[in-house]
Amino acid sequence: MHLTSCGWLQQALRDLWGKKWTGLLITFQRISTV
Q1: pLDDT tens, position by position, 2-22
Q2: Which residues, including other chains, have CB under 8 Å from residue 16's CB and lie 6 or more apart?
Q3: Over the chain, what HEC string results?
Q4: What are phi and psi of 3, to 5 degrees?
Q5: Does pTM surpass 0.70?
């Protein structure tokens, strides 16, 4: 499976985006728990 630089960039962006949303969800859960 060959990843082009563009495909790799997309994957990295998707990973960063997912982590960002996960962090926001965790933060939101903490706020609503308090």
Answers
A1: 556 788 888 888 999 899 999
A2: none
A3: CCCCHHHHHHHHHHHHHHHHHHHHHHHHHHHHHC
A4: -100, 120
A5: no
